[in-house]
Amino acid sequence: MRAMILRELAALADNPAPLELVDLPTPTPAAGEVLLQVHVCGVCHTELDEIEGRTAPPRLPIVLGHQVVATVAELGAGATRHRVGDRVGVGWIYHSDGSPEENLSDAFQATGRDANGGYAEFLVVPEDYAYPIPEGFSNAEAAPLLCAGAVGYRALRLCNLADGAALGFTGFGASAHLVLQMARHRYPHSRFYVFARSAAEREFALSLGAAWAGDTHEKAPEPLDAIIDTTPAWKPVVMALANLRPGGRLVINAIRKEDRDRQDLLHLSYHEHLWLEREIKSVANVTQFDVRDCLSLAAAAGVRPTVTTYPLADANHALVELKQGHVRGAKVLEIGGE
Fold first, then answer.
1. In the prediction, which pLDDT does 190 show?
2. For labeling, which of 4, 24, 196, 265 is most exposed (least CB within 10 Å)?
3. CA-CA distance, 63 to 92, in Å (whole number)?
4. Are the CB atoms for 88 and 133 separated by under 8 Å?
5. What is the pLDDT of residues 24-48, one digit of tens each?
């Protein structure tokens, strides 16, 4: 099978083509696993964290990718949840202990980091961590729902919002453009505000129903009950805290933060940013339950992911564009036939 593999960690600035297209043996499903023929795989900022070592794979080489839409090709012994021919998806969580807090468990394993992922024509996954894809989504549309959507859904849930509350987003890429659509459905009387450096991202947010969109350093028209930060940077964290109402919550939706602007944390003021019971909550991974609930909510809300597609061999190009901030919606690799 064709696969893009990572042989060594590198900064993309030094090595803009860290992934190599190779032929690998098609894996065989073990007991309780399913073999999937991959159609598409989304490109996620976490792949940059893996390549550049912020959340490094425990072994190399590795096949990256964790927003997989595929068809069940073979069942391992005892696997009964799916049938051959079913369309399923795989997200960031590859396997864990099955508990409600499995995202925090020491047993947590990540697709494309701890086990080979979806930048390949086939992969194996435990059957409980493959999810039926609702009708109505194309393969490419479904891919970002499996991570950008699912982790965004978890962030939205952690905001503890009531309908009518004011919600903000810092950054407006693959995750935020999906969460805004889900939030509009779940909280029809709420107002949504977007902070983004790019004028194109701000215009995109307004087209999806944001009440206001401004630059990262601007103040929203009203104090916000919660803000979801989807950026890899630190400055938006400080600026977001200044936009929270007393008792408001900032939810940071990121596996890792980059160090390039870490000095902006020196501008953090206890009185301006944290006092009056403002709080910060991190998002750690996802559970299988988040992925299932996200797919259900996205279908009910009529979420329409915006995607740009690339052939598998152009994975390096897609990653470099993501690193450089060239984002409108989500990026998706096309790998196999429908």
1. 98
2. 265
3. 13
4. yes
5. 999 999 999 999 999 999 999 999 9
Question: How many domains are there within the chain?
Answer: 2
CA atoms in the 13 A half-sphere facing the CB of 6: 34
Q: Do 129 and 158 share a domain, yes or no?
A: no
Structure confidence at residue 325 (pLDDT): 82
Report the alpha-carbon distance of residue 200 to residue 202 in Å, rounded.
5
Q: How many CA atoms lie within 13 A of 192 on its CB side?
A: 28
CA distance 27 to 189: 49
How far is it, in rounded angstroms, from Cα 276 to Cα 223? 13
Same domain, 59 and 24: yes
Distance between CA atoms of residues 57 and 43, nearest Å = 17
CATH of the domain at 224: 3.40.50.720
Query: pTM surpassing 0.90?
Result: yes
pLDDT value at residue 336: 83
Residue range of the domain that includes 241: 150-282
Q: Which of 282, 301, 323 is the last residue of a domain?
A: 282
Q: What is the pLDDT of residues 148-162, one digit of tens each?
A: 999 999 999 999 999
Is there a single domain that holds both residue 137 and residue 155?
no
Domain CATH code at residue 329: 3.90.180.10
If asked whether residues 12 and 94 sit together in one domain, one would say yes
Shared-domain flag, residues 266 and 317: no
Structure tokens that stand for 47 in this block: 């792949």
Q: Which residues contact 182 (CB under 8 A, 6 or more apart)?
A: 149, 152, 153, 156, 294, 297, 298, 301, 303
Which among 51, 58, 67 is positioned nearest to 19, based on CA atoms?
A: 51
